[in-house]
Amino acid sequence: MTTTTATNESVVIKTLAPNHFCLDQNLNPRVVHTIAKSLPWYGPKFSPHKVPNFYDVSGITENPEAFKLVVDTFAERYERMKEKPTKIAGFDARGFLFGPTIAMRLGIPFVMIRKAGKLPGVLVSSGEYVTEYSTDETVMRFGAIDASDRVVLIDDLIATGGTALAGFELCHQLGATVHEFAAMIELPFLDGVKKIHEYKDGLFKDVPCFTVVDCLTIGEDMGRDPIGEDVPRVVKAEE
Ligand SMILES: O=P(O)(O)OC[C@H]1O[C@H](OP(=O)(O)OP(=O)(O)O)[C@H](O)[C@@H]1O
Ligand SMILES: Nc1ncnc2[nH]cnc12
């Protein structure tokens, strides 16, 4: 299913499946192109994990125009909604790059979903979860969100959806409603959004998931592995 909805002049949303939305690349060509073409990827030899394409969010953070477009896209989306989120929760670590600025724009709190072993105080745990390349556990401070909250969960990228579901679990345990899950990049071939909507017999099937670009819009041409067999992974800076 693909339908298109114009919410204002600048941001047009495409429906990919029930409660699965993305920016329409044909109708927002400048935004999608600028963001997608600011996202390099590296192959396994030059990545921290053995995945075919590891996407590098620093292509966005080091490009002020692209960084602003990402933040504006999310912030304007929530500013325009009749029913607004009450909190933004971001995932350790790359969700921390976008969440705080969006929360500040909306004038609402930013809550950290932290990897286990980093937060003080009384905590709730997501339990163990599996990502595209690791097994982790996330925690949130007890009381950071409660049953009155409508929480936007935000991250840089959704792959298998394991990390996202850990955030859904935390919100669920604390009685809060997830307003939306949002990520800048989606890897659709890993079916992360489908997994969120099918989790526990559809417990979260009504929660919208919104993404901006995917691996196809980024494209194979964004591969940035150095050319040459002998290029080392870590180099010494020349004096
Ligand atoms: O959909 P999934 O398969 O769960 O993968 C997505 C997660 O993987 C990455 O985080 P990572 O765990 O590598 O942590 P980092 O931000 O500290 O690099 C990314 O920032 C997402 O949080
Ligand atoms: N392919 C990928 N690139 C960057 N971050 C990721 N997190 C999970 N999968 C990833």
Automatic annotation (TrEMBL):
Organism of derivation: Bathycoccus prasinos
UniProt function note: Catalyzes a salvage reaction resulting in the formation of AMP, that is energically less costly than de novo synthesis.
Assembly information from the UniProt record: Homodimer.
Main subcellular location of this protein, as a coarse class: cytoplasm
Record-level GO cellular component terms: cytoplasm
CDD domains: PRTases_typeI (cd06223)
A Pfam family of this chain: Pribosyltran
Pathway(s) annotated for this protein in UniProt: Purine metabolism; AMP biosynthesis via salvage pathway; AMP from adenine: step 1/1
UniProt family annotation: Belongs to the purine/pyrimidine phosphoribosyltransferase family.
GO molecular-function terms, A-Z: adenine phosphoribosyltransferase activity
UniProt-listed NCBIfam families: PRK02304.1-5
Reactions this protein catalyses: AMP + diphosphate = 5-phospho-alpha-D-ribose 1-diphosphate + adenine
EC number: 2.4.2.7
Protein name: adenine phosphoribosyltransferase
Domain Phosphoribosyltransferase, chain residue ranges per copy: 58-213
Listed InterPro entries: Adenine_PRTase, PRTase-like, PRTase_dom
